[in-house]
Amino acid sequence: KNEVEQSPQNLTAQEGEFITINCSYSVGISALHWLQQHPGGGIVSLFMLSSGKKKHGRLIATINIQEKHSSLHITASHPRDSAVYICAVRWRDTGNQFYFGTGTSLTVIP
Amino acid sequence: NAGVTQTPKFRVLKTGQSMTLLCAQDMNHEYMYWYRQDPGMGLRLIHYSVGEGTTAKGEVPDGYNVSRLKKQNFLLGLESAAPSQTSVYFCASKKNEKLFFGSGTQLSVL
C-alpha cells in the first residue's frame, strides 16, 4: 500500500527556534506538496516540489527523490507559525489524485 | 476573485436525510476534488473531476455522489446520510500543480 508518513505528530517550540518537519513516502511520486492548516481550519498551499529545494520567506522545503523524503524547515519560528503542516503526494502511477499525511501539529510558544 | 467557495459551512443532519454540498471556483480550473478529514487521518479523496461533465471515484466514494455540470461548480451529494459520514469536508481545485482549498464544511449526522 502506498503511504505517506509525517514526523513528528506534534511539536512544541520556543519562539525563535529552528523547526524541521519530515515527510517520507513509499513509492515514486510526480510531485510533493506542503500545506498549512490554520486553527480555524483553512488549508493553504505552501510549496510544490518535484526536486531540490524551495524557499519562501522563513520557510524552506527540500526533497530527496532517491531517499523518498522531504523536509519542511521554519527558521526563526514565531507564534503565528502555529498550525498543522500537511505533506501530500501525487503518486507517479495514479495521475491526478493526491494522498495526504496525517499532519504535524506545531505550537510555537512566545 | 473569491477562489474556492464552499457552502454550507456547518450542517447537522439526521440519519437518512439527504443534502448537497456546493463547491464553486472562479479560477477556471479543470481539476476539482472533494475530500473528507477525520481525526487522526489524512485528508481522503471522495471523488474528483478532471473537467466539466467528468467525474471519477477516489479512495472513499461509497455513500456519496457528485456532479460537474458546469466547470466552476462541483457538487457533493449524500443521498441517505449515516453517522459514519460525520466529518469535515473540503473541496479543492488545482491548476499547474498548485492546490486551492475551500474553507471546509463541518457535517454532523445524528
Would you summarize the structure shown here?
The complex is a heterodimer of chains A (110) and B (110). Chain A is mostly beta strands. Chain A is built from no helices and eleven strands.
Could you tell me the radius of gyration of chain A in angstroms?
13 Å
Q: How would you spell out the order of helices and strands of chain A?
A: EEEEEEEEEEE
Query: How many separate helices of chain A?
Result: 0
What is the H-and-E element order of chain B?
A: EEEEEEEEEEE
Largest pleated sheet of chain B: 7 strands, mixed
Q: How many strand units of chain B?
A: 11
Binned strand content of chain A: over 45%
Query: Any idea what the radius of gyration of chain B is?
Result: 13 Å
Please tell me the overall pLDDT of chain B: 95
Shape, per Cα inertia axes of chain B: globular
Give the terminus-to-terminus CA distance of chain B: 36 Å
Total beta strand runs of chain A: 11
Q: What is the structural class of chain B?
A: mainly beta
Given the structure, what is the number of helices of chain B? 0
In which range does the helix fraction of chain A lie? Answer: under 10%
Which class best fits the helix and strand makeup of chain A? Answer: mainly beta
How much of the sequence lies in strands of chain B comes to: over 45%
Sheet of most strands of chain A: 6 strands, mixed
* Percent of residues in helices of chain B: under 10%
